[in-house]
Amino acid sequence: MAEEYDYNSMWEGLGMDVQAHEGLLAAVGGMYQSMFLTQQNRPESTSYLDFVATNLHSGRIREMLDARNEGTTKKVIGTFCLYVPEEIITAAGAVEVGLCAGADWAPQEAEKYVPRNTCPLIKGFMGFKLARVCPYIESADLVVGENTCDGKKKAYEQFGQLKPTFVMDVPHVRNEDTRQQWRHEVRRLAERIQQETGQKITVDSLRAAIKLANNKRRALQRLDATRAADPVPISGLDSLLTVQAAFMDDSARLTNAINRMADECEKRVTAGTGVAPKGAKRILYTGTPMAVPNWKLFNIIEKAGGVVVGEECCTGSRYYKDLVDETGETLDELYDAIADRYLNIQCAIFTPNEGRKEDVIRMAREQHADGILDCSLQFCTIYDMESFGMEKAAEEAGIPYLHLTTDYSGEDEGQLKTRIEAFLEMI
Questions:
Q1: Do 291 and 101 form a contact (C-beta atoms < 8 A)?
Q2: 52, 171, 285, 365: which is deepest, by most CB within 10 A?
């Protein structure tokens, strides 16, 4: 019988507060049980997601630490945002991981560094760090941030006092000048990551990293395409968790698992098998990203009898809809291909941002959505501001629309349930 691994010692070795961490694991485990494991008629292949959820803070962390100790992966690079190119990090021999930011944790500690009326995601990652309960933050050798909004831009100044932090300058308009500036930022990141790892990025290593990331995106595209069917073969909750896992799990292993999920879902489409009855109200989600374990909204929608058929957000289609051109023959060509792909992500930071509205309406039609639910995290000004234009675009397209604002707490669940049930009934 294999000896049981001592994860408490591993967490203590990372400098974590093990007792507080046990409380976090218990809370998240309870949420997962009540939200995911009570779903009816899940595809069998989604059992891989149960494996991911069970091992997020244990087995996956052990893998990364073992690889670092064995010298096969020298460094762990933590990120919070889609604009940080994973290909650059992989090509330099490091592993990229998304950092904890999806729950309200130690807010009193976080408010020593950021204002009380701050986006929950920002307060979340500050709280996770200060409470020492996120093994991804504690195991990261370097955190790469980005100035996607004013809140994060200033928060990274504070976070940098707690953890080595490198910040990328993301343009907020798109033109030829900013394209060149962003290409420079990608190269600046490459220089910093190579400095951190001590490993040079080569044409071969970068091309291999691009292919690895593209294969993951292709698998996610396959899975997403099956959700246009009625009945829908996989829930929005499981689809959301699949993309969330893409920020933390081993890329090659996860890609294989997603392709198995796509295989099964394609067969379910042919057989007419779904996770919700045929004719269930179909919702397209758009808005702010939902980091683990922020599953509240999707759980409410699907427990109310609706089904989420697509996500236009950073924990959704923005992650996988575009591939990086793999044909470059020089480092400069490959760097430019990476930069151009990432500059096309339709974040609300951009002005003007017609591309996001176009993507939402296109996806709503492709996925045969009955309604669009646009959600902003509290105090997220840029997404709240964009909701006015999004509502007009939905109205012109003849698609019912609902805008909600929420946070990470459960205090508004009753109100959200009432509004979502009314919306489902209305459409």
A1: yes
A2: 285
